[in-house]
Amino acid sequence: MSELQRPIFNFHGGLDLPGHKAESTSAPVADMPLATRFTLPLQQHIGEPDEPLVKVGERVLTGQVIARSAEYISAPIHAPCSGTVVEIGEYAIPHPSGLQAPCIVIDSDGRDEWAELPAPWPNYEEMNPAELRERIRWAGIVGLGGAGFPTSVKVNPGPDHPIHTLILNAAECEPYISCDDMLMREQPDKVLAGLAIIRHVVGASECLIGIEANKPEAIAALQLALEHSGCPDTHILVVPARYPSGGEKQLIQLLTGREVPSHGLPAEIGVLCQNVATAAAVADAVLAGRPLIERIVTVTGQGVAEPGNFRVRLGSPMNQLIEQAGGYTAAAHRLILGGPMMGFALHTDALPITKAANCLLLASQAEAPEPPPAQPCIRCGRCAEVCPALLLPQQLYWHARARDLDKAQDYHLFDCIECGCCAYVCPSHIPLVQYYRYAKTAIWSQERDKAKSDIARRRHEARLARIERLEAERKAKLRKKKEALEAKPKGRGTDPKKAAIEAAMQRVAAKKAAQAESVNTQTDVAGQTGNADPQSPEA
Amino acid sequence: MEFATTTSPHSAATNSVTRVMAEVLLALVPGIIALVWFFGWGVLVNIAIAAVTALLAEAVVLRLRGRPVLATLGDLSALLTAVLLGLALPPTLPWWLTVLGVLFAIVIAKQLYGGLGYNPFNPAMAGYVLLLVSFPLEMTRWLPPAGLAEHVPSFAESLRLILSGGLPTGIGWDALTGATPLDQMRTGLDMNRMIGEIRQSPLWGSVGAVGWEWVAGFYLLGGLYLIWRRIISWHIPAGMLGGLFVIALLFNMVDANTHPEPLFHLFSGATMLGAFFIATDPVSAATTNRGKLIYGALIGVLVFLIRSYGGYPDAVAFAVLLMNMAAPTIDYYTQPKVFGQRENGDG
Fold it and tell me: Which domain holds residue A386?
């Protein structure tokens, strides 16, 4: 097959990690039964949070849009079940800090009655990309690999960036996670259909499917489906299982040999990456008119009795999902959302499953050991050897530690993808990624402060300028008036109207003077005021 | 259910500073055995004195600085410094000089700068240079290698010599000690003798000097082990040996009578020890890959220049300390291009 002829390139650094995929791939994907209560955070995507469209007490149907935002970078949220909205308020969401955020809470009526859905578009090839994008947008699809960026925005890179290569990111390089693997094994046709739709939307001339060599079943299933589908110029490219091959930039380099520019987007080199589950969701949205209300979640680790993959309605409580996977074992020590390298630890299981939740890792003490106390950096350079972004992690660490944020940026802090390779190999057990996160947030907050003070400064300057301008205008007006008045005596002859008035007034004054010959004093006053008025007020 | 949280990544390789240091110590073992074989027990006595002094000094300073004592001693860095310094000292050196050198290395060169990871200079070499500059006579009293020596001191004699300065009965300093090969070469050249003449002496072996070349060979072996175990990268040793080789070769090609061949330089003195164990001390070396090559190569060139034209027969300690000063600058100018800034093969 053609994939054998294409070269696989290499990326710098990375780690060969134990995969731990087998634990969760022995059984097919199981459906998690409908929960009784669903909690749906209003922001499950990168961008603007949604506004609720429903009220407490309102009945909703499965698939009904219950929240959306008018902003471009956003994705609507749909009811995952039929039932009643019981509350709209602040609830704990899956966030590293245990943050609370606005959520819609729905009690299921257990009937799972669906709302009226838009028409399926099996002949999507006849639709234009804008219509398809609008459908993807309606369906609330975001990057399901964990990023959560609205897909409708991602598939619209704009006319400046024509896309020639569409990459399906099927690497799933993080240990333990297997939801994409299982999806490809069980529904390869849907994945390929989604890929074909996205390809039509962006107008790519070829599709590359990048998949790690540790998923032979998925590769075989995709190959079979590909032969049947007859998708032209679509190639399955098997890459070595080396973390982080599934990093967007790393996968693009592996498959095309090209580097996405620093601080740039893949679209700048004509490439677009989409995750497997995202492609399947696009297929659902376009071919079946179904919105994104469920996803496959891997529940694994030594802390759970029966690891596996589950099809879960969004908003389902994690603790019920864990029950579904046989419940906790005595070894359960840490709850990680995502994988062991980039996932974040949760302090409780009383949280909802969101769009970006790909894996719940119930790690044992051995799987996620307590980090030993950090020792001083001995500058051994192992971190630089494994850094896929070719950074100098230890210099970054020194500068982040010294709060020298400018220097940290000089050393390309923002090219760090937080893959964790450096911290993984560090002999001094320094939580390097944490330092980089700290430095990044410190810079962001500095920039926010700077933007704020810039606005304040601009306001202040604008106010000063306005005052100055008004003052200048006032002075100019006065000057004009003054000039006009000073110019009057000379210009009097040229203005017959004014001359006439003047003459009339003089006549009146003369008349008055004649009339009041007897009352001398009053005549003088009247004559003065009459003359003084049109003349300079300062006089 | 509630859980404790930590930050990602949640798993780590089983690596530690202790392991790194222990591997380096392990890699030194063949070289130390060869040293003891050729130069007697005094080597081990020096190492033992240095080790005890280093651990005590580090413990006291850590205590004064309010740092965890046992955990820090357990990183083995003080022990490694002591071993590196101890094996570089002549096996006849009075004990208090070893103590002085180690105290300077641990207290001044390492802990006063902030301890492990913060010292700009290689502590062992700082201690060595202090002793060499202050006590040149004592620091050059090496024993001739076994087989050439009139008298090889026993363990008890070595101990007595080092602790009390007492010579074995009936043997004077001149009979006991001899100049190092580098010293002999230097003295010979200063007396306008040709390399060929100088090398007539039974002191010389196939590439370096008898005994010394074997020690160097075992250091090389240990160094290759470290590269294989990924404790050090190949860049600094390659740079240093390459730099020294190339410049020695150039001069040797110009005038082979006054400039020994490059292999002599590689297998004499502290070249191998320096290339794999001293210059590679990550704390005080350059850290970028290109930087490491430059750093190593310049050490090699300095070693040659000081050996050939400087005031001391060997030069590794001086060369390393000089380049320690240049390491931050080298790092600054050799930053690698990050992902997305390298040349894109537009295809």
Answer: 382-440
List chain A residues with CB under 8 Å of B58: none
Count CB pairs under 8 A between chains A and B. 176
CA distance B327 to chain A (A): 12
* pLDDT tens digits, B209-251: 888 999 999 999 999 999 999 999 999 999 999 999 999 999 9
Compare CB distances from A423 to B12, B16, B75 and report the shortest one's residue. B12
Give the pLDDT of residue B97: 97
HEC sequence for A401-422: HCCCHHHHHHCCHHHCCCCCHH
Q: Would B222 be classed as within a structural domain?
A: yes
**So what's the pLDDT on residue A499?**
77
pLDDT value at position B347? Answer: 35
**Which residue in the block uniquely carries the two structure tokens 């046992």?**
B70
Domains in chain B: how many in total? 2
State the average pLDDT over residues B33-39: 94
Share of chain B above pLDDT 70, in %: 99
pLDDT at A330: 94
The SS3 assignment for A465 reads: helix
Q: What tokens appear for A174 in the block?
A: 């993080």
Alpha-helical regions (H) of A129-178: 129-138, 151-154
The residue among B122, B149, B178 that closes a domain is: B178
This prediction's pTM: 0.83
- Could you say which DSSP state residue B30 is in? H
Collect the ranges in chain A with pLDDT lower than 50.
Answer: 1-3, 522-539
Q: CA torsion, points A427, A428, A431, A436, in degrees to nearest 10? A: -90
- Among residues B313, B321, B324, the alpha carbon closest in space to that of B139 is found at B313
Evaluate whether residue B120 is within a structural domain: yes
Mean pLDDT confidence for B14-42: 94
Residue of B nearest to A391 (CA): B338
Alpha carbons A30 and B191: distance in angstroms, whole number? 89
Residues from chain A that touch B283, judged by Cβ atoms under 8 A, are 378-379
Question: Does one domain contain both A460 and A433?
Answer: no
What's the gap in Å between the CA of A444 and the closest CA on chain B?
A: 20
Q: Are B283 and A427 in contact (CB under 8 A)?
A: no
In chain B, where do the E strands start and end?
none
Give ipTM to 2 decimals. 0.86
- Does residue A367 belong to any structural domain of this protein? no
